[in-house]
Amino acid sequence: MSTAVAQKKGFGAFIWDYLTTVDHKKIAHLYLVAGGLFFLVGGLEALLIRIQLIKPDNDFVSAGFYNELLTMHGTTMIFLAAMPLIFAIMNAVVPLQIGARDVAFPFLNSLGFWLFLFGGLILNCGWFLGGAPDAGWTAYAPLSTVSPGHGVDFYVLGLQISGAGTLIGGINFLVTIINMRAPGMTYMRMPLFTWTALVTSTLILFAFPALTVGLFLLMFDRLFGSGFFNASMGGNSVIWEHLFWIFGHPEVYILILPAFGVFSDVLSTFSKKRLFGYTAMVFATTLIGFLGFMVWAHHMFATGLGPAANSIFAIATMAIAVPTGIKIFNWLFTLWGGTITINSAMLWALGFIPSFTIGGTTGVMLAAAAADYQYHDTYFVVAHFHYVIVGGVVFGLFAAMHYWWPKMFGKVLNETLGQITFWTFFTGFHLTFFIQHFLGLMGMPRRYWTFLPGQHLETGNLVSSIGAFLMAIGAIVFVINVIYTSVKAPKVSGDPWDGRTLEWSIPSPPPHYNFKQTPLVRGLDPLWIEKMEGRKGITPAEPLDDIHMPNPSILPFIMSLGLFIAGFGFIYQVDNLSYLWLVILGMGITLGCMLTRSVKDDLGHHIHKEDLEKEGAEQ
Amino acid sequence: MSDQTLNPETMPEQPERATLEGKNKFLGFWFFLGGETVLFASLFGTYLALRNSTNDGPGAEELFGLELVFVMTMLLLTSSLTSVYAMYHMKNNSFGKMQLWLGITVLLGLGFLGCELYEFYHYIHGEGFTLRSSAFGSAFYTLVGFHGGHVTFGLLWIIALMVRNAKRGLNLYNAPKFYIASLYWHFIDVVWVFIFTVVYLMGVI
Question: What phi-psi label fits residue B74: left (phi over 0), alpha (psi between -120 and 50 degrees) or beta?
Fold first, then answer.
């Protein structure tokens, strides 16, 4: 049914298909496109920031607009680019790696995407409706509570809605990985990317509710006159800092752990070796996840929590370097003695190791609380977190896209263009951010819209801006590569890399039921085991039979649209109480959809055995 | 399979976990409650930080009386027990008795909600104590209000399930739905135990 019908469809049916899809592979496409677009928007904001700072006393943008740019750059990149792109890869790969036909909650999977998208749209609506958020991506109170206009309201409502989507996605992947593994796929046989997806989902589950509460308190302070962060009412703005970072620190591990998983799979595949120290890698991943909750106050060393608290959090932070170091050495030992193939995916993985290690080293420097007073709020911090987030997460996403592109779309990305992307982006990245360590040590504060001449900051900022343009070129070449590949490149087989894990045992792109017969997993790197024993594919765990699949639904889209409408009602009821009708309308739509979903039976449908046999004959 | 799900000839021992969908719902909902725990923990943390910031307005000792709160606690604790009875009858496949006990649960929940609304009304109009009075007021109404909102949502949920399935009885498709609704109801009850202790008892003593 899948392929035959899809080819006859017109454009309207194509759109409807994506609006209602509950197929994890199509939801991955949606996340990829939406996250990719937001990545370009965030990148554009970064370029404007770097143009402003290209020379001293520049007036390319105004100070107020600069605040909006830096706030939206950070918020967009973290919540609307990195998170959804990670969800894109998780959706595309995790069910295939564990031998599942779909995720545990296909309907919620779709809901998670639409909530993220509508939240992201609310956040960016600020640009057109009187000013974007301008209190920094951390939105520290009381700056955020007194920021005039509606800018920060868009931040609060947008993140609240997209955060709900992320939480739903996290629960979905937890249950998928725990309940839907194929026979024989024990925990200690799961590919490392699936392991990191599991740990990341756990972190999402326990970190995002803290942000939810923080955003509610900020919303009540701004929109309903409560006094959580208002000192004149007895409030305390440090509460925001705690809630934000109790979420915010696990968030950086939410971002980096899946990237670690990607590199583990890529390095093992292209070294033709099983991952070195698999057990230690799993242990290190869970330990990082655990320690990630113990270190949030290292963002608040300068807040004044006192030497005892600072020392405890400093030591806990330094402890994270141990499991991370274990990982770095395991990757190096995976390469050691391997039959190495160098291609775009592998280049990103190889470039990641030294780049991320630099970021980790400055992380340990920042963890020393006493020294942090010197680094705090300077470009040293900016350099550090870009080294880990770009050098870790973005490199990881690029590696993942080059590695799994053939699985998602049936075509290998162009290798020449891929290498151009890597070398321009890699060079540009180090040009932009390496020098910022020194700018920071020389005393240049972050978030300032301009700097003075004659303080030896000119050359460094110029170099940094040039690097930013190189990164932009790299990103544009990648977009060209995607278009070129989809038009020109030939179709490839299901296993172009001579892969080791289950996703390479099925056609590319996979049929919408993924596995015609559930695979039987007989060890770590199950496909490799079969190959070593001279078999062509995976041994099935069951005879060919009818396959049960979920039904598509438009409800997730409408549900999210309802919250989008209600969001505007909440924001504007401050000016005019009649906007409360929008709240009632929007919440009514959402709750109505929930009721419909609850009372209407949705038992899914079956793909019949005979049709499966027919499709098999065609292939 | 769907035929078996909707019209089972015999009920398995744990109808809520007999299908893969049921197993997923069961596990996913436990995880969701884990997230909810962090949500309420954050609200409790905020409340504890702000409970003495009364801004010269009314404080906990002047406001809270334990009589009404005791009645509310009894109502909600009993409703948790009655929802256990409902699940007991679900496992024995006696649909009528399950509906009866769920109905009693809903009535007790409505009683609790009525008391809470009366309490808030009294504070706002009798004592002039609102969300905007002080940071303490903000923290109190947000924490207790979030719990009240959960109670309201839980009541609507259970009522919807009861009405929807009134005519067709129990099957393997709706048994997980009833089960997780009762899990939610227990969670609300546990949160209230903490609110009773941290907000009311610690406020008065």
Answer: alpha
pLDDT one-digit tens code per residue, A589-611: 999 999 999 999 988 999 999 88
The terminus-to-terminus CA distance of chain B in angstroms comes to 58
Cβ atoms of A101 and A547 within 8 Å: the answer is: yes
Predicted TM-score of the model (pTM):
0.96
Q: Do B35 and A239 touch (CB under 8 A)?
A: no
| Contact between B6 and A225 using a beta-carbon 8 Å cutoff | no
Q: What is the CATH number of the domain that holds A534?
A: 1.20.210.10
DSSP string, B160-184: HHHHHHTTT---TTTHHHHHHHHHH
pLDDT digits (tens, 9 = 90+) for A314-324: 999 999 999 99
Kindly list the residues from chain A whose CB atom is less than 8 angstroms away from the CB atom of residue B131. 220, 224-226
CB neighbour burial string for B123-138, b if at least 16 within 10 angstroms, e if fewer: beeeeebbbbbbbbbb
Domain count of the fold of chain A: 1
Q: Which two tokens stand for residue A292?
A: 């990630």
Which DSSP state fits A605? E
| Residue B166 touches partner A, C-beta closer than 8 Å | no
* CB pair distance less than 8 Å for A235 and B42: no
Residue B15 belongs to what H/E stretch? none
For residue B2, the surrounding DSSP H or E stretch is helix B2-6
CB spacing of B142 vs A220 below 8 angstroms: yes
- Chain B stretch 176-195, residues whose beta carbon is closer than 8 A to a beta carbon of chain A: 177
Tell which residue, B145, B54, B135, B46, has the closest CA to residue A244.
Answer: B46
Amino acid residing at A229 = F
| Best CATH choice for the domain B17-204 from the list 3.40.50.300, 3.60.150.10, 1.10.150.240, 1.20.120.80 | 1.20.120.80
Helix (H, G, I), strand (E, B) or coil at A446: coil
User: SS3 letters for A139-181?
Assistant: CCCCHHHHCCCCHHHHHHHHHHHHHHHHHHHHHHHHHHHHHCC
- Compute the distance between CA of residue A484 and CA of residue A467 in angstroms, rounded to an integer: 26
Q: In this structure, is residue A575 part of a structural domain?
A: no
Query: What value of ipTM does the predicted structure carry?
Result: 0.96
Whether A11 is in a domain gets the answer yes
Structural domain boundaries, residue A425: 2-553+602-618
Q: In this structure, what are the phi and psi dihedrals at residue A321, rounded to the nearest 5 degrees? A: -65, -25
Residues above pLDDT 90, as percent of chain A: 95
